[in-house]
Design goal:
Distance between the termini: 40 Å
CATH architecture of the largest domain: 3-Layer(aba) Sandwich
Largest sheet: 8 strands, mixed
Strand content: 15-25%
Number of domains: 2
Structural class: alpha/beta
Radius of gyration: 23 Å
CATH topology of the largest domain: D-Maltodextrin-Binding Protein, domain 2
Shape: globular
Number of strands: 12
Length: 434
């Protein structure tokens, strides 16, 4: 844990190791003191992340421009969640700006009233330009038609492929599910000991990557009435398709206990033609120090199913304002500054993928990415869905339930029957949350 301070005029930066009781903290402090009720002092809680490392280096600029003193508490993800649950549940006023994971706690925090409705603020922000933010991430930082967060880091569903294997088999890069299946089949048949495709196979872990298949086949997790939709005809077709891809064209001795590290390792070792997973993981197969086939890795947008190409495009992290903060106007000033077009471009140049469309259109915003990857990410954003798992309070339990039919299909079992069983369990969870 590190405690860092901007002291005096905030022109010098001093970093030293320190022990602080409870959670670790990183403080960016100016000349003033005071707590959350002091209109010139802002308490900001952030997660350990490269985005945080970059933004904290620039906070003195915000302080100098506004006269506001910023105190930053920086925590690990687990510490962050525990800290929020204790403080926000108690109605604490000593958090103003909060970095949070919409996928994990968005519904719970929205339902609990922890997050300030900033709909009017984003709508009246002028050149800051709320319309510049991608549809999928915005969907995830919206709760019951209220904007409650601003997305800062994104992730989408990427198709990675071996250029050399496609060329050797005379295959075009697939753009549809049918073409993907045919290419995986052909590569496995043409290359002894090489899988046509590898993806996550463990029930909970696979849910996120399965989601794009579910949406592209016309399915969803929860219908408009708030009931389980995983036993619909569309969902069953998606479960069967994903399961068959790995059962028929996956690695020999196919395991049903793989998450992304295991799947990416198989691809990076040259033992699969395709790998589908998060765009943020690309260095694991593109970096020559990590991958035997780095020079042959290609990137392409998610293929179209019967309902089009609908990969997930999610806000991995977002900024929000504590609903109990007495310093909401200054909190919004900080969020505007940290997510401005100019700051977003600066941070994306360092390799942190943003939710703003403009930085993906700007060559300066994509120069640190492989060209094909940047193009695929931008394409995925056009029709991306803003969540990659059921939007419930009990996310972990839900993932285990809805992931069951995936494993059944991969194992060669009856994924339709498994979907019916899972549907009943998932409905019980939904009823309990109502």
């Amino acid at each position: 844990m590190t405690q860092a301070k901007w002291t005096g005029t905030r022109r010098s930066f001093i970093a030293a190791s320190a022990a602080v009781a409870g959670a670790g903290a990183l403080s960016a402090c100016g000349g003033g003191g005071g707590g959350g009720g002091d209109s010139t002092t802002l308490n900001v809680t952030l997660a350990n992340h490269v985005w945080t490392d970059l933004i904290t280096k620039k906070i003195s600029e915000f302080e100098d421009d506004t006269g506001i003193t910023v105190t930053v508490t920086q925590l690990s993800e687990d510490q962050l969640v525990d800290n929020y649950k204790v403080k926000l549940n108690a109605g604490s006023k000593d958090i103003d700006v909060m970095m949070y994971r919409p996928l994990q706690v968005g519904k719970l925090f929205g339902q609990s009233g922890y997050l300030l409705d900033i709909s009017d603020k984003v709508g009246d922000a002028g050149d800051w330009n709320w319309d510049d933010f991608q549809k999928g991430p915005v969907e995830l930082t919206t709760y019951e038609d209220q904007t409650v967060g601003v997305p800062i880091i994104t992730e989408s569903e990427m198709v990675y492929f071996r250029k050399d294997l496609l060329k050797a088999s005379g295959l075009d890069v697939p753009t549809t599910m049918e073409e993907l299946e045919n290419a995986a089949k052909t590569i496995k048949e043409d290359n002894s000991g090489t899988a046509g495709i590898v993806m996550r196979s463990q029930a909970s872990a696979a849910v996120t990557q399965f989601s794009g298949f579910l949406y592209s086949f016309g399915g969803t997790w929860i219908d408009d009435s708030g009931n389980s939709a995983i036993a619909s005809a569309e969902a069953k077709e998606a479960y069967a398709f994903y399961g068959n891809l790995l059962h028929s064209y996956g690695p020999d001795q196919m395991s049903t206990d793989m998450s992304w590290p295991e799947a990416s390792a198989i691809f990076a070792q040259g033992n699969a033609g395709f790998w589908i997973d998060a765009s943020s993981l690309y260095q694991n197969v593109y970096d020559p120090e990590k991958s035997k086939i780095a020079d042959q890795v290609g990137f392409t947008p998610f293929p179209a199913g019967p309902d089009g190409s609908k990969p997930y495009n999610v806000a991995a992290w977002a900024l929000a304002i504590n609903g109990e903060s007495p310093n909401q106007d200054n909190a919004w000033k900080f969020i505007q500054w940290a997510t401005s077009p100019e700051m977003t471009l600066e941070i994306q140049k360092e390799g942190v993928p943003s939710a703003r469309t403009s930085v993906w259109d700007d060559p300066a915003g994509t120069e640190s990415y492989p060209e094909e990857l940047a193009e695929a990410i931008a394409k995925n954003a056009e029709n991306g869905v803003g969540y990659d798992r059921p939007r419930v309070n009990g996310v972990a339990q839900a993932r285990e339930i809805v992931g069951g039919p995936i494993v059944a299909g991969i194992s060669g079992g009856d994924s339709d029957a498994a979907a019916d069983d899972a549907n009943a369990q998932f409905q019980e969870l939904l009823d309990g949350e109502k």
